[in-house]
Amino acid sequence: MVSTQAAQAEQTSVESAEQATVEFEAKAIRQASRRGFLMALPAYGYLVLFFAIPLMIVVVYSFATRTSSGGTALSGWNLDAYRKLGEPIVRDILFRSIWIALLTTVLCLIIAYPFSYYLATRSERVRNVLLVFVMIPFWSNFLVRNYAWRVLLGNDGPVSQVTSAIGLGETRILFTPLAVIIGLVYGFLPFMILPLYAAIERIDWRLVEASRDLYASGFESFRRVVLPLSMPGVVAGSILVFVPSLGAYVTPEILGGAKTTLLGSYVVVQFLTARNWPVGASLSFVLMSVMLVTTLIYFRSGGRTL
Amino acid sequence: MTETTEKCSVPAVGITGITKRFGDVVAVDNIDLSIADGEFFALLGPSGCGKTTTLRMIGGLDFPTEGSLRIFGDEVGTLPPNKRPVNTVFQNYALFPHMNVLENVGFGLKMQKVNKSDIAARSRQALDMVQLGHLAERRPTQLSGGQQQRVALARALVNEPKVLLLDEPLGALDLKLRQEMQLELKTLQRELGITFVFVTHDQEEALTMSDRIAVMDSGKLLQVAEPEAIYERPANRFVADFIGNTNLLEGTVADSTTVVLANGSRVEASSDHAAGTKVAVSLRPERAYCHEVGGAPSAHSTIDGKIRGTTYLGNAVVYRVALDWMELDVREENRPGMAKFEQWQEVTVSWDPSAVAVVAD
Ligand SMILES: Nc1ncnc2c1ncn2[C@@H]1O[C@H](COP(=O)(O)OP(=O)(O)O)[C@@H](O)[C@H]1O
Ligand SMILES: [Mg+2]
């Protein structure tokens, strides 16, 4: 009898000890999360002030009414601005933008993959030097670099001079979609190289050795091990190139000329020239949604590279 | 060129004068090794002694700086790994994370362009062989260490290699599982008749599993022999010390049957070292006995000392005996009636003179 009582007493004390531990743990977790929130507070503030609020303003304006004088009335809420996006002019611009962004992405991928592979398989020292080379363009202004391309691709620029010297005649690249693509590929290539490099560099090389040991040739080894394992980098790089290419403004403005209006320029025209803020806002919002959805799909599919 | 006439005399792996340098580091230093067909062969040595490098050269993942390497008589020195009839079980398993277990196992067959239905059948069979048939659809990351190990084994064996290379395959497993797998590997090797080259730094594992053991240190091959010979007749001080526990009593050879120990006492120990050679007499703890002073059998060699410490192991007790000039471990099996000694008690340590080995550097 006595021993059972003792056992019971012991059990309750064990239970209460466990209870206490659980409570203590919960408290610790609460404290940790509070500390975490405090650290993230500036970032949250920044996001709300410069992203969430402006975005809300854009959304609100997209449902507003354009007055005949070119002003915007925050009344008579309607979907006119969204209906306007279905018109042929806008649709053409949309398709052209998507097409150019896709081409830019694919070209970046083709150029960046071999280079990133090369980069990832070098020694630490060579790697660091090459990475600096990748970053160098960022040291000068994006606008300046685009104007440099204007000089390079112009009708009497170096490219044209070379082609006419070897008898191919003058090249007329400037103010064509090709010039825009060249400019975009040039501008966004580092955004493809860096995630690709990160993904390839992270691959456990022993897996490649294992595949070689299992009778894979060098090529098969690449196709079945390196390529699939670098997919997160491919996806991340593609998003990082596709998204800004789709909304690009500076490069098409400087290199594209009047015939190659893209979405970015069209939005600007709506706000500044046509003074149709609701349409500009609705287009911005749609564009942003597309980008957001693309990115979400990426994270949902398990990519965690960036 | 002399033709090798007898087929069965061709070694599975023939290594002649192989050296591997990485810059200034000599990872493998001029080794000769001949591994027979169907042998369970262990490469044993401390970490960094060049075991993995040797194995990688056999597998074709590293190429020798010098020397010749033959597999069943064919020179393979510079052949890439996919052109060699060997497969490897890697130290960290190296399972492909983006494929499920079955695809992992079938990878080698797929690369050899075996037809699809055969791949499926043989992969399943290989998985069943390692008792993992039920986990075929899982990803490697969803398996325990022991299960991953078995998948790696199946992935290599499904290709029916002539030689299987295993780089510390059991290193990451806990003791119980490791012992189980040791037995399983051994049984598997017997049944399949494949030559196993097994790398380990665990001398006990090498002793229990292998037909022959090669002991390496600093890239050099120190001794190649059967487990018993390695344990009983170590080639030098390093081997004696590395394999099992031992007491090394420093001394000098007096003649072919006598060694003068460092304290001046003469003990009976036969060796073929020249008189005057600095040697150590290797006395295994389990070969020595403790007695009350003067209680040793007359045929035994003896040394007097004091009990300095006692370690209780359950199945045995190890007495640390302090001599004037060194300390000795003496292991007494925990049998009924085992003699017990007190701390600081004066004792006589004795051993049968035929139970020691004389080793030089
Ligand atoms: N790729 C390499 N580059 C430079 N040194 C290496 C390389 N691989 C191995 N080594 C060196 O060679 C020696 C033997 O290594 P290893 O064969 O891995 O030893 P073990 O497998 O016996 O632990 C070590 O000193 C190691 O540092
Ligand atoms: Mg190793």
Structure commentary:
The complex is a heterodimer of chains A (306) and B (361). Chain A has 2 domains: 2-62; 87-303, MetI-like (MetI-like fold, Orthogonal Bundle). Chain A is built from 13 helices and 2 strands, in the order αββαααααααααααα. Chain A has helices at 2-62, 80-84, 88-120, 124-135, 142-153, 158-165, 177-202, 205-213, 218-229, 231-246, 250-256, 263-272, 277-300, and strands at residues 65-66, 72-73. In chain A, helix 5 packs parallel to helix 11. With 361 residues, chain B is an alpha+beta fold. In chain B, 23% of the residues lie in helices and 34% in strands. Chain B has helices at residues 51-59, 101-111, 116-129, 145-157, 175-192, 203-209, 227-232, 237-242; strands spanning 13-22, 25-35, 40-44, 66-71, 74-75, 86-89, 163-167, 195-200, 212-217, 220-225, 247-255, 258-261, 266-268, 278-283, 288-292, 301-312, 316-322, 327-333, 346-351, 357-359. In chain B, the strands form 4 sheets. Chain B has a 6-stranded mixed β-sheet with strand order 6-7-8-3-9-10, with helices on both faces. Chain B has a 5-stranded antiparallel β-sheet with strand order 13-12-11-14-20. In chain B, strand 17 and strand 18 form a beta hairpin. In chain B, helix 2 packs across helix 3 (116-129) and helix 3 (116-129) crosses helix 4 (145-157). The interface between A and B is medium-sized, with 18 and 23 residues. Residues 22, 25, 27, 45, 47-53 of chain B line the site of adenosine-5'-diphosphate.
